[in-house]
Amino acid sequence: MAPSDFAKANIADVVEQLTTDEAILLTAGVGFWHTHAVPRLGIPALKVSDGPNGVRGNHFFMGTPAKCLPSATAFAATFDPALVHDVGLHLIAQEAKLKAASVLLGPTCNTQRSPLGGRSFESFSEDPHLSGMVTAAYVKGVQAGGIGACVKHFATNDKENDRMAYDSILSERALREIYLMPFMLAEKYSKPWSYMTAYNRVNGTHASENPHIIREILRNEWGSNAMVMSDWFGVYSIDHAINAGLDLEMPGTNKWRTLDLMNRSIQSRKIMKRTVKERAAKVLELVQRCAKAAPEILDGDGEERTVDTDAEKALMRSFAAQSIVLLKNDGGILPIHPKAQGLRKIAIVGGNAKARVLSGGGSAALKPSYFTTPYDGLVAALKAADPDVEITYSEGAPAYMQMPLLDHELTTEDGRRGWIGTWYSHENDESMTPLSQPVATTHVDETRMFFSTSYPTELTKRWTLRLKGILTPRPEDCDFEFGLLSAGRARLYVDGELVVDNWTHQRRGEAFFGSGSEEERGVFRLKANTAHSIFVEYCNVRAPAPGDPDEAVMDSNPGVRLGGAPVQDADDLMAEAVQLAREADAVVAVVGLNADWETEGYDRTTLALPQRTDELVSRVAKENKRTVVVTQAGSAITMPWVDEVHAVVHAWYLGNATGEAIADVLTGNVNPSGRLSLTFARRLEDYPSHGHFHSENGKVRYGEDLFVGYKHFHHRKFDPLFYFGYGLSYTTFSYSDLQLSDPVISGGDFNLKASLTLTNTGSVTGTEIVQLYISMPSTSELTHPPLTLKAFAKVTDLGAGQSTRVELELDKYAVSYWEERISRWVVEPGVYGVRVGRSSAPSDLTLGGEFTIEKGFEWNGL
User: Fold this and answer.
1) Confidence of residue 50 (pLDDT cuts 50, 70, 90)
2) I need a labelling partner for 153 at 20 to 30 A (CA). Which of 114, 247, 411, 811 fits?
């Protein structure tokens, strides 16, 4: 019988035939990425895979190359659910099939309370309506392609530090209107096949064992049939989680739901057999959905593959370009046309110009099947426009937190990129002495190696890995600084000389999901045109650290990372970039963050760009008035130099097609149409969560309540640097003739149509995003945000001088608020305001109107 034959099974009959032990096994994973199979009853295992901006496959270490898509904040910046649906259908679902995965662990639709959140880049927006509509489109696309989506992290997982323990303390109204709303809209419009609970507590109870979140809201109120799984190692009990409705514990390593503990819980009447079977039944329902939708995955060989068609590459490039936001373009210095503008020499500077920055870190990280740096993309586009243009380059100011990886700087003795790893078991499970004969030898083409569970299974509990390679020769003598960190212990030798000792003692750090050490650095003098040997010895047992003598074995999260770069005087490097700017006709500064700064596992501590980057931009701009700044970050950053430059482009993290997409926008091949999916404030202190974002004695108090993001700035009546929804074009648009239909209330629902005329008043074809905001009646006894996004429409390729009629539709969600006293949604009678424009900035909301609801109503469910 083929695994996909389970598509025809009668779930009720199968559940009845399950033994108690089989039912227990179905409620927890097997290994890191699979559900349990029951061959006796023809039940196949499902494979799941990270993540939101691509499909990595089963391996963090030496993973199969994959399509890396733009960050979630970039997804939302397109304001284009139709495009997101197509990406889900044609890119993500197909990639999941290539990786033999039936369920994608995404999308993430948590709300950005603060851009400091380590995974802010992984969620769509600060606005629940935009986030919910993009989530729904993503899920519909992926599931239309036969792949189950797992919407996460349910709910209020809005920061990383203390993420397993902190308690999100917030009003029920804020929970409903802000933090659950994206999930609610996803359930209403796309019916996700599964949800993943968050690590944290919600008002006192962990999400994975929270009956209010799982049973009362998701199951009973919304009527969801989805399977609910935990985040990895996000289960903290047996009975509480089982009884609250958590169907599947993941992963299967170090799990709570063992046969012994579960049977003891049944015997002690902590849980019931029927409840265990109810949980198992939800897992089987998901297995059957996947068997019906994509039987070829379950019947396939399980091998992971990489395929990039021309059509897929074109869609990735177009999608990335449509997410880019033009923030400033004084004097129309963009787009860049070298010949027409008389630009004979263009300088490219900045720490991100040649760096491989494609995604934030953590579960979203993967190995790209191809990648183009901003520098390479710009050079290709500029040279295509004018072969005679001269392009110069200087890093100017390093942007890295950890030393840059050496993935492309090491070779094996036979000339392959990378190095050779040799694995050794130890004399026994308690020994620190490796055996003389290796267990396995592997070619490794990466220098950040998070092994997770992807190491030889025959190794003893404690094991050693020895890595040998050759550093690419340098054209001249130089001091070279190496950086080594590990989850475990490691030491680096260059030409047999110990350069970095992270073996004897360590400093505990945040790398590798909080298990790694701090990076230790050492300098070695390289000789010109000389091949230097690199040797790293690693053991998966931590070394003692100050205040922490624990030498724990890293069983599910071992890792080691080697980076390095030539030692350069910071002042000299800055002076070089300034000199190039002085000599050039134009400058493109590519600056920003990377996966070291924005990652799962810890939160940012500042919104400033790294090290001396802000100084670099300011000094370059003083030398060359034609300076264009391209920023890369998955969330907001501060821009103290913004008034000193004439053009700013925010490029998020764009995945494989980074360089091409940036070049397309800067050279005018694409007229920018992206809009900010979150507010950029002038300073950290201006964000509404400032002062109560961090976990204090395990508690995070959501003191801003409903006033998240732009709602706070409207409420307090002061402007951020750039408002949510803001973005410019190479053309201009005007709005006129707003018409509102009479409200229609029928069967507990509400409908109203708004229409307006949009005119391209510029000289080139462009795309505009029309945004509609609602204000609640002033007669309401409750406080409401002054304006809330409730509808948007993307008008594409409107020709110069052309006009079109744009229609926007409002439903009951647009006029409802959560009434805590009666636990229902309420629509009040009164006069509602409508504002329409191109961003949430009051000055951009150029059209206004109002409508009256004569008789209110209440509702529940979806």
Assistant:
1) very high
2) 811
pLDDT band at 51; cut points 50, 70, 90: confident
Using CA atoms, how far residue 817 sits from 83, 564, 702, 828, in Å, is: 30, 54, 18, 9
- Per 3-state DSSP, what percentage of the chain is helix, strand, and coil (rounded to 5)? 25, 30, 45
pLDDT tens digits, one per residue of 157-211: 999 999 999 999 999 999 999 999 999 999 999 999 999 999 999 999 999 999 9
Integer CA distances (angstroms), 687 to 92, 569, 692, 748, in order: 34, 36, 10, 37
The enclosing H or E element of 792 equals strand 788-798
Beta strands in 295-374 (DSSP E): 325-329, 345-349
pTM of this structure: 0.97
Give the position of tokens 């197509």: 86
For residue 52, pLDDT over 90 is answered with: no
DSSP state of 86: H
Cα within 13 Å of Cα(304), Cβ side: 21
- pLDDT, residue 429, reads 87
CB neighbour burial string for 396-422, b if at least 16 within 10 angstroms, e if fewer: bbbbbbbbbbbbebbbbeeeeebbbbe
**Angle between the 181-190 and 128-144 helix axes, to the nearest 10 degrees?**
40
Complete domains list, the chain, with CATH: 3-298 (3.20.20.300), 310-400+569-710 (3.40.50.1700), 410-445+456-557 (2.60.120.260), 733-859 (2.60.40.10)
Work out the average pLDDT over 49-73: 94
Q: How many residues does the chain have?
A: 862
pLDDT score recorded for residue 683: 97
Tell whether omega for the bond before 65 is within 30 degrees of 0, i.e. cis. no
**Residue 528 per-residue DSSP state:** B
What whole-number distance in Å separates Cα of residue 347 and Cα of residue 353? Answer: 11
Euclidean distance between CA atoms 389 and 588, whole angstroms: 14
d(CA 468, CA 533): 7
Query: What is the pairing mode between strands 647-650 and 627-632?
Result: parallel
Instruction: Read off the DSSP letter of residue 811.
Output: -
- Judging by beta carbons within 10 Å of its beta carbon (0-12, 13-18, 19+), is residue 111 exposed, middle or buried? buried
Is pLDDT above 90 for 742?
Answer: yes
Q: How far apart are CA 477 and CA 132, in angstroms?
A: 55
247: left (phi over 0), alpha (psi -120 to 50) or beta: alpha
Spatial separation of the C-alpha atoms in residues 516 and 561, rounded to whole Å: 10
Compute φ and ψ for 813, nearest 5 degrees: -65, -25
- Whole-angstrom CA distances from 724 to 36, 615, 771, 842 are 44, 26, 11, 11
Query: To which residue do tokens 């009668």 refer?
Result: 10
Specify the 3-state DSSP secondary structure of 705: coil
Q: What's CA 451's distance to the chain center, in Å?
A: 21
Identify which of 360, 388, 403, 356 has the alpha carbon closest to the alpha carbon of residue 375.
Answer: 356
Distance of alpha carbon 242 from alpha carbon 11, whole angstroms: 20
Mean pLDDT score, 121-131: 98
Identify whether the C-beta of residue 315 lies closer than 8 Å to the C-beta of residue 89: no
Q: Which amino acid is at 145?
A: G
Residue from 158, 231, 664, 686 carrying the catalytic annotation: 231
Q: Are 57 and 101 in contact (CB under 8 A)?
A: yes
- CA proximity to 672, closest of 595, 605, 727: 727
Query: Is it the case that residue 747 has pLDDT exceeding 90?
Result: no
The C-alpha atoms of residue 287 and residue 3 are separated, in whole angstroms, by 10
Number of Cβ within a 10 Å radius of residue 12? 10
Residues forming beta bridges with residue 227, ordered by sequence position = 194
Answer whether 421's CB lies under 8 Å from 454's CB.
Answer: no
**Which residues share a beta bridge with 566?**
480
The DSSP output letter for 188 is H
Concerning whether 445 is annotated as a catalytic residue, the answer is no
Residues 609, 637 contacting (CB under 8 angstroms): yes
| 234-240-242-243 Cα dihedral, nearest 10 degrees | -140
